[in-house]
Design brief:
Elements: H1 9-23, H2 28-62, H3 65-77, H4 82-94, H5 99-117, H6 121-138, H7 143-151, H8 156-179, H9 206-225, H10 236-243, H11 246-262, H12 269-302, H13 305-314, H14 320-335, H15 338-356, H16 360-370, H17 380-389, H18 393-421
Helix pairs in contact: 1-2, 1-12, 2-7, 2-11, 2-12, 3-4, 3-9, 4-5, 4-6, 5-6, 6-8, 6-18, 7-15, 7-16, 8-9, 8-16, 8-18, 9-11, 12-15, 13-15, 14-15, 14-16, 15-16, 16-18
Length: about 425
Amino acid sequence: MISVFKINAFLSFLIVSIIAGISLGLPLSKIAGAIEKGMGDVLGSLVIIITTGAMLGKLVAESGAAQKIAEVMMTTFGKKHIQWAMVITGFIIGIPLYYGIGFVLMVPLIFSVVYRYKLNAIYIGLPMLAALSVTHGFLPPHPSPAALVVQFEANMGLTLFYGMIVAIPAIVVGGPIFAKSLKHIEAKPLASFRTKELPEEALPGRWVSLFTALLPVLLLAFASFLPLTLPPGSALGPVISFIGNPSIVMLTVLMIATYLLGIRRGQKMNDIMALYTEAVKDVAMILLIITGSGALKEILVQTGVSVEIASYLKGISIEPLFLGWLIAALIRFAVGSATVAGLTTAGIIFPLMAGAHTDPNLMVLAVGAGSLMFSHVNDSGFWLFKEYFNLSLRDTFRSWALMETIVGVMGLIGVLILHALL
């Protein structure tokens, strides 16, 4: 429905959920309730994380904090190591910034560097975009990994920690190393895509910018590993559990960022809230797609199809982590959306995990890696890259599509290595 008939992913999920419920024998009186329950179960755990994450990302970008981080990286690494400056900038900015927003906001910074130093656009730009892509696919609080954490009953902080370990080599290989082979591709970025940069005096300080962008990671990591140092039954346990809840973490970070990047710099509260309203509009459809995937998952659970799928898959001698990756990769190839691929895979692979005793944190990463595979003409990111960098279809496949496949494969390798070590 999504790839052939071009029907909106949210509507596709709802329609298929109804058809599946009827076809699989679920009583008509229970279908609507199952759909509502599935939507509520998923959205209830995610709406705070995703909306506050979008608000934080918008504030980081609009306040000039993103621009400041890029400048700090450029100054630190210099022209000789400019690629690494772009990678680290993309990684830091990619943590709080939703991918589509990050792409549109970061590409003009890439073009500024390209024009200023007269460098190859693909060689400089692809490493940053690889970092953005990997954070989008692997790391909470991005929508798909955050939703997978909930559906697989994983630990948000531990998934983030493992995700960092897996993400770094994937970015290095898919970004700077792979980009060295692309210097012969001539890209002529359109001048109209160059954004107006804020003057230096209007930017926030370097430490405030870095601190705000990285604070979600720091708090989630702190809340995940501090309990390991406490004695059993410690009175601090419930307090840390509350503070470390991802929703509370994101709300706390947003409040701190509102002050540091907004109020303290003279912005009016009305203007900041208007910015947040715009940010929520950017992720509204993502929220709907996630709720739709929850509806389909619940139909599969209530009809017993999930158990049947699990029993069938148990007969296949394939490592569950690899199977999750493969299913996500095939769905990504079919529908184009990494988010849809990850969420659809969740309903299929979840029943198999319990019997196989699969680490849910690693399964989040395996499915996330698979969801980045095989980007082509049905992926909006493919066209964003092609049009912004003014490339031919052939060169877009040789650069963007191959980069996405490399990070997906590297992600799988990283997950399987972690699985062998843990």
